[in-house]
Amino acid sequence: MSRGLFECVPNYSEGRRPQVIDRIIAPFQARAGVHLLDHRADADHNRLVVTLVGEAEPLQEALLESAIAAIAAIDLRVHAGEHPRIGAVDVIPFVPLRGVGMGDAVSLARSFAARYARETCVPVYLYEEAALRPERRNLELVRKGQFEGLQAQISLPERVPDFGEPRLHPSAGATAIGAREFLIAFNINLDSRDAGLARRIARAIRASSGGLPKVKAVGVDLAARGLVQVSVNLTDYRVTPLRTVLELVRAEAGRVGVRVVETEIYGLVPAAALLKEAVTDLQVAGFDEAQVLDLRLLDMAAGTE
Fold first, then answer.
1. CATH fold of 184-269, please?
2. For 68-77, 213-222, 249-258, 296-305, which range has the lowest pLDDT when averaged over its residues?
3. What pTM was estimated for this model as a whole?
């Protein structure tokens, strides 16, 4: 395995208990070679999203230690939240960053998945670029039916896991492990209590329903805030920019007199994605990212200039 850098964004089915969250993220704070860049917990989604950067070996060790803590503390039989999930540790995606390519991320995902299933007794599904079966490239299909539905179907030939026994862990379910490009989690909050409206807009904009390419979306009820949300995963901002998503949601909500209250970027975002929006606003002709001082300095520091 190359000694380059990977991003990893594990998602856990816990967003409400600070003491459990602390135990989950502790392994990422104490291991050399792993950098905890961000972690965000959402009570409505009941989900924790962690952003890490590191080399393959220390990443794997920290992820396993964190997974063991999560599996011990999270029981999906009593878990409730707005976000779809099949596991206490729901997804672990690897993203190639520097000095590695997608092939390296795929190799890492597959080798780690085998070890993860063996050491945690949690079955694993491979998804996106790491998928062994073409129908499992799509995470939504892997998570179809969520924990409860998968429990009844996991022994069916089309739902047997890639690693581990064909039965869910009693309380921790299953985990999806994959390799993918950078993903932007972009939430759009609407001044409405109509969860059906958010779901209809999500259906209208997502690629799987014939909407915008490289867009995944679900409608979410933010009951504690008195709002609803169109929760978007943008899998390639170069194909569909953030602005395009926002404008379409704004137009669809406007048809019924509902306004966008605010948007949220959940987790980290590439500078290029925001630069793309700023350059559009300023109508800058012939702009090149090499004109951005901060990015040039980062390249110099990394020895790429």
1. Alpha-Beta Plaits (3.30.70)
2. 296-305
3. 0.83
